[in-house]
Every structure is written in C-alpha cells, then in structure tokens.
Amino acid sequence: MRIVRSAAELPREGELGLVPTMGAFHEGHLALFRAARDENQLVVASLFVNPAQFGEGEDLERYPRDEKRDAAFAEDAGVDVLYVPAAEEIYPAGFETWVEVERLGSILEGEHRPGHFRGVTTVCLKLFNLVRPRRAYFGQKDAQQVAVVRRMVRDLAVPVEIRVVPTVRDQDGLALSSRNAYLSTEEREQALALPRALAAHDRNLLNGLEVDYFEEADFEPRVLAAAVRVGNTRLIDNVIVEGET
Ligand code: AMP
C-alpha cells in the first residue's frame, strides 16, 4: 500500500473505488474497504478529519487520530493507496465555495448540527474531483449522509456511483463508531439502549438518555434514525424500516 499526501501522486490508470474516511478505523471501515476491493481494480481510502463538518464545541480537537495504526489496518483490508491530503489541498487559502443540499441536509442531523452536511458534501465533491473514482463507498450507519451525498451526485450529475455497505455492529448490538472510544464502561452499557430502542421501535427504551431525535426518515431505504447523547458523547444509529420502501 502506498501512502500519498497530494492528489498529484494518485493513480490515473484503472477503475478506482474510493472510501472517504476520517480515520480511527474499525470493522465498519474495513467492510467498506473490502466491498471496494471486490468491485474495483484499485482501492483508494482517503483519511482526512474534515474540520468543515464539525460544529463549534464539537469534538474536532479530540477526534481520535492514529495514522500508523490506520495504515496497517487499511493495508490488511486490501487498500492500494491511502490518501492523506494536507488541509491546504482540500481548503486552499481563499476557499469560499460550498455545496449545500438544502432540505435533506437541514433535517434530523442537519437540524442538530447546522452546517454539518454542507461540510460533508463539499469535502466529498472535492475528494471525488481529486481522486476521480468510478465508485465511492459509504456506510448505512450514516443513513442521512448517504441520502444527502446521493442527492448531490444526482442533482449535480457527478460522475460517480455511490455504493452503500450495511452497518457493522459489535456483538452486543452497538454500531461501531470511532466515537465509541470516548465511552466509559458504564456509558457503553447505557449506549446499548440506542440499538435496542431502534430494534424495538420503542423510544421509551431511551429513558434517561438525552435524545436529539428518534424519527422515521424517508430515505431510500426508509429508516428509523436516532441520535442520543451519552455523557459527552453523541451517538447516531438507524435501522431500515422493512416493507415500507
Ligand atoms: P467516518 O470515518 O466515521 O467518517 O466513516 C467513514 C465511512 O465509514 C462512512 O461512510 C461511514 O458511514 C462508514 N461507517 C462508519 N461506521 C460504520 C459501521 N459501523 N458500519 C458500516 N459503515 C460504517
């Protein structure tokens, strides 16, 4: 696996699959890498903790970063190129162009994290333009992100195919997330209420947790989505609502 820090070093031959990430790899990321491995000649994973998708007072500074560990995991999962751009390549001096998916990007997560999806869509379009992948891979764990990126790709006729990989969970049902690392043992136990409430479609199971939303959303497929706070950690998850798509 090659680690490249500028787009000029990216491969220009062959069909590319891109997996955009913010690092702190877990089995969820590895599932995306493997899906990309199965369908493309070359797999590029990008590793960029995108400041534009974090709000004020969020966890940008404490977000887990360990490039060496991530590089080893990515190589094992069959990634050919790990693209770790410098911030100036993504946001050159004087940067002032943003992509905004208006309605889809302003409900649910967008309502609780204003500007979040503007940061996501802008960095995704930038990465698509720099890497020029045939396919890009996203996790169903972030169902609204999938919906918003797909809408951008359709609306702006971006020449990339969006592929979605099912949510990977721990044995106890908690969806894997880089943010799970923030949880104490006791908080992790409390966090299990989230997958349980979603599976049972029962908001009452979240009693005692601070709930940002617990709502069905008309994405494709339709999901029941929720965001909760456990201590200082904000967690999101969703389940597909069967038979109603
Ligand atoms: P992140 O590094 O958190 O931005 O995530 C990078 C990609 O991995 C996104 O497309 C996420 O949706 C996906 N992802 C994160 N957690 C999971 C999971 N538990 N299962 C499947 N995909 C995931």
Give a summary of the structure in a few sentences.
The chain is α/β, with parallel strands linked by helices and 245 residues long. The protein has helices at residues 27-39, 67-76, 87-90, 109-112, 116-131, 143-155, 185-191, 193-200; strands at 2-4, 16-21, 42-47, 81-83, 135-139, 161-165, 210-217, 223-230, 233-240. The strands form 2 sheets. A 6-stranded parallel beta sheet has the order 1-4-3-2-5-6, with helices on both faces.
Task: Describe the protein.
The structure is a single chain. This protein has 245 residues and is an alpha/beta fold. It is 31% helix and 21% strand. It contains 8 helices and 9 strands. It has helices at 27-39, 67-76, 87-90, 109-112, 116-131, 143-155, 185-191, 193-200; strands at 2-4, 16-21, 42-47, 81-83, 135-139, 161-165, 210-217, 223-230, 233-240. The model has no long low-confidence stretch (mean pLDDT 97). Residues 21-22, 28-29, 31-32, 138-139, 141-142, 165, 167-168, 175-178 line the site of adenosine monophosphate. Adenosine monophosphate binds at residues 21-22, 28-29, 31-32, 138-139, 141-142, 165, 167-168, 175-178.
Name the descriptors:
alpha/beta, 3-stranded antiparallel sheet, 245 residues, 6-stranded parallel sheet, binds adenosine monophosphate, 21% strand
Shape descriptor reads globular
* Radius of gyration, in angstroms, nearest whole number: 18 Å
Structural class: alpha/beta
Number of helices: 8
Number of strands: 9
Query: Span between N and C termini?
Result: 40 Å
Order of helices and strands: EEHEHEHHHEHEHHEEE
Q: Which percent range describes the beta-strand content?
A: 15-25%
Identify every distinct bound molecule in the structure, by name, code or SMILES.
Answer: adenosine monophosphate
Largest sheet: 6 strands, parallel
Low-confidence stretches: none
**What is the average of the pLDDT values?**
97
Helix content: 25-40%
Main sheet: which strands, in order across? 1-4-3-2-5-6
